[in-house]
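Archive maintenance. Older records in this collection stored only the sequence; we are now back-filling the structure field for every entry so that each record is complete. The fields below show one back-filled record exactly as it appears after the update. Entries are processed alphabetically, and Lysophospholipid acyltransferase family protein is next in the queue.

ARCHIVE ENTRY
Title: Lysophospholipid acyltransferase family protein
Organism field: Xanthomonas hortorum pv. vitians
Length field: 299
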Amino acid sequence: MEQRHPLPALRACQAAVTIVALPSPGTGPVPAMSESSLDATRDAGGVLRWFRYLYRVPLLLVHLSLCLPITMLCVVAPPLARIRTGHDDTLDEWMIRWWQGNLMRIFGFRLRHFGTPLPGAALFVANHVSWIDISMLHSQRVMGFVAKREIAGWPLVGWLAAKGQTIFHQRGNTESLGGVLQEMLARLQSGKPVGVFPEGRTRGGTEVGPFHARIFQAAVEAGVPVQPVALRYGERGNAQAVVAFGERESFLDNIVRLLGEPARLAEVHFLEPIRALDIDGRRRLADTSRQRIIAAMES
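Back-filled structure field:
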């Protein structure tokens, strides 16, 4: 069935990004990577890498200069934002999912989702690999994220995060965390979903770190379910370290590197929800969520 866009102007944007779903020449299933092959993948040289830049950079510029303003118009204009799309969401939510999904495709990710995100108020908790995690989650379900305050200063992404109702947190600041928890509670009680990365930081894609239990307190007090979400990159997650930030790699350097990477899978697994009232305390809630994510990553 042909997909119909709510706005005719979107057809030009869609046409510009559809070709990125095709694998890059010479690529196929991505095998498990040794240290030497991982180093080669990170190398910025190579004919294929520059070939990908030749078509992905123009697509990214079109996506930012044409498709982003259209998306933001639908988000900030109340008459447009309230239009129902027939997909159980409003036009602004549909547009955000559409824009984020196409951003993933421009970077060569072939999205695949498993399970169904909960409707209404819920706390979504996911493992944290890279900045692209937020785009992957937003392509499936629009939610307000808790993110480190440094993101607010990142080019474009910081502005988008602020417009997307991100809750910024100053890491290591107890007073800031208290304010974050209050804002999370208010949003959950008003029926809005919230997304968090309970590890608190990325870890090079090599492990799922301990989950901070305190961030689950808002779900306990609001009485809303927690849905663990597993994010995997590559076949069976073998490209986690490729997608993650390299040692001393800046945000801009990571963007440039990923634009030249081969096409690969990006999987989002919405796992069985956990009723906060069924778990004894936020510590067990955090541990149970982490265990389910690890099990999904290893499956």
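Update note: Residues 10-298 form one domain. Confidence is low (pLDDT under 50) at residues 1-5, 15-36.
Entry marked complete.
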